[in-house]
Design a protein that fits this description.
Length: about 220
């Protein structure tokens, strides 16, 4: 199956380099290129790609607003933010807008390829190590909705326990080791927990936890106390 990709970046040379890298993969096809967010929205609707690589800072319509517009439509593509720095000041907002994660423009080519492939498969794009760095950025902001939301009651005790470890940046193998269960069991519980909470992926689980004041660095997450 070919992964159809739209590139959105206001720098032509960046688009050329990304297109060359991605088109070299046998299962990738760059089907459109946009120089700003408005063009990205139009191409996403016209071409129905699987993944949109979205620069955050662009003229006319920035990547944050463009992401919101793309994801507001039925059956939208996965949107992945492109940023120059791993703690871009707008990263938090683009993730809240619904982006599935982010890639660094200066990352090694293999990381970019793996990131796009993960997005196409509906997986998480942010490694546990980077998630931990992002947590520091998220928690500089006060909780938007303090207190445990009622939706947490939908989770089983085991799902709450695993969710609490997930939002602290643990990957499946680490959670499995901590809880003495099979990694496949962890994966199943993670999938169920995200679905019940209406969360797209792990990074949005982290956002959810910190926006509700459920956890903070160095302290247990929901359901572990």
């Amino acid at each position: 199956m070919t992964v159809r990709i739209v590139l959105a970046d206001d720098q032509a040379m960046v688009r050329v380099a990304l297109a060359a890298l991605l088109d070299a993969q046998p299962d990738f096809a760059v089907v459109g290129e946009a120089a700003d967010g408005a063009e990205a929205v139009a191409l996403a609707r016209e071409l129905s790609p699987d993944v949109v690589l979205m620069d955050i800072r662009m003229p006319r319509l920035d990547g944050i607003a463009a992401t919101r517009r793309i994801l507001a439509h039925p059956s939208p593509p996965h949107v992945v933010a492109l940023t120059t720095y791993d703690l871009d000041e707008y990263l938090y907002d683009v993730l809240r807008a619904g982006a599935s994660g982010f890639l660094l423009k200066h990352a090694p080519p293999e990381e970019l390829v793996l990131g796009v492939r993960a997005a196409a498969d509906g997986g998480a794009l942010v490694s546990p190590a980077v998630t931990k760095r992002l947590i520091g950025e998220f928690t500089r902001r006060p909780p938007r909705m303090p207190g445990p939301p009622a939706v947490l009651d939908r989770l089983t005790p085991r799902e709450r326990e695993i969710f609490a470890l997930l939002v602290r940046g643990r990957n499946n193998s680490e959670i499995a080791r901590d809880l003495f269960v099979a990694e496949s069991t962890v994966k199943t519980h993670v999938t169920h927990a995200l679905a019940k909470l209406g969360l797209r992926d792990r990074i949005h689980a982290v956002l959810f936890a910190y926006e509700h004041g459920l956890t903070e660095p160095g302290r247990p997450g929901p359901g572990t106390g």
